[in-house]
Amino acid sequence: MLRTCGWRTAVGALAMLACARSATGDPQAEIAQMLSRSASDWNRGDLAGFMSDYARDSTTSYMAGGHVLYGWQPMYDRYQRNYFAPGKSRDSLTFEELHVRALAPDVAFATARFKLTRGDSVVASGPFTLVLKRTERRWQIVHDHTSADPK
Questions:
Q1: pTM, full prediction
Q2: What architecture does CATH give domain 25-146?
Q3: Cβ(125)–Cβ(148) under 8 Å?
Q4: Where are the domains of the chain?
Q5: How far apart are CA 127 and CA 95, in angstroms?
Q6: How much is the mean pLDDT over the chain?
């Protein structure tokens, strides 16, 4: 049986939708700001800051080079070993060509390109896709699929 809702219910639903929309702001701008800070953290050698944008969860996933890695801690360990270990040369990170699509008030899909440079030389670059979830008034990455450009 289909029931009709009163005007108060409809107004309440619209108010909740407006609150949800205003609470999330502009996903494109917020995620761009997050990635800018993330690149700054990387470039300062702050792995904890860089990793703070990933959901600290066992289901957070990272795909690259034909492999899938699950969990925040294994991802942290991979970055530590490959880029932040003592004596490792860590290249300068930038993100470009960011496009964000909100899928729901608290879920977004983003595509962009990363670039690692050493001096004037590009060491690595490529496209990536992120799935982000808004939690506790900030966006966090729940899935990252990164590809490298051909050499």
A1: 0.80
A2: Roll (3.10)
A3: yes
A4: 25-146
A5: 10
A6: 86
